[in-house]
Amino acid sequence: MGNSSSLKSGFKKDFKVSEMLGKGAFGKVSRITRKSDGKEFAVKEIVKKNLETDDEENLHKEIDIMRKFQHPFVVGLVEVYSDKKKICLVIDLCTGGHLLERMANKKLYTEQDAARIVYQLADVCKAMHEIGVIHRDLKPENILFATHEADSPIKVTDFGLSKFVDNAWTKNLKTPCGTPAYVAPEVLLRKGYNNMCDLWSVGVILYLLVSGYPPFYGSDLNKLCRRIVKGSYDFLPKPFKNVSDDAKNVINGLLKVKSDVRLTAHQLLDNPWVKGGAPADDLPDTKEGLRREYLRTKFKRQIHLVVAMDAIVRSKGFQKVG
User: Is 299 exposed, middle or buried (0-12, 13-18, 19+ CB in 10 A)?
Assistant: First the structure.
């Protein structure tokens, strides 16, 4: 199993498992307690027999990235254990819930809440891109809260599709990667893309956070991809009547089809709306939309972009675009 020399043994000797938190295709996530000091963490258990060769390679890349990239707004990797049957990733325990669920359940939800999320995402992007990490799958499902406290920081998770590059600003990535609704136009066109694909995803997340609706949609994947490539979105959903022009300007700056003119992480961090100038008026219609979107994504398995692109190319439909 790849870089096995850096993987520890004796997981059960060091930790006590208390309860299962979730289950996925490759294994499960559980709450655990470190026996030496009683501190709680989570463990992502991955069953080796469920992994294909590509899955193993991607897992080791994810481990490598998480070991090298530590950030206050990112789920931290504490240790990695391995035995004959499983790989165990010991990670930070996040008890504050998922992004959309948390925002939808706030008594008072405002643009300030959305701006605070965007500021933290921009900080993550800045730090990631400076060391050559491109996430490639930023979306609400991959954003958790550390605790239930009102001022809890976010924790970005799931670096399974991330990539280490020598220079994050060089457009040398061509693999279609991510979740269709959040993916940037240049990723779909496969002409070469860079770290700015992450900023597009932040723009999609921001649009959703202030309106409760995704900016790009379609009755099938082909139509969705066409809208994304054209940058075809608007501010027509009803909740936008209560959204400030400053918020719309940030969205417009992030959802630029040409990545070279898209807002950078540095520019986002310096933006007055993002830094604290967002309105504090309640957005009740937006909360309803966020709740609906959370339930939709919770019970509907997201299709991976590689699968989507293969289907579109086979149908020859998307080849007419661009």
Answer: exposed
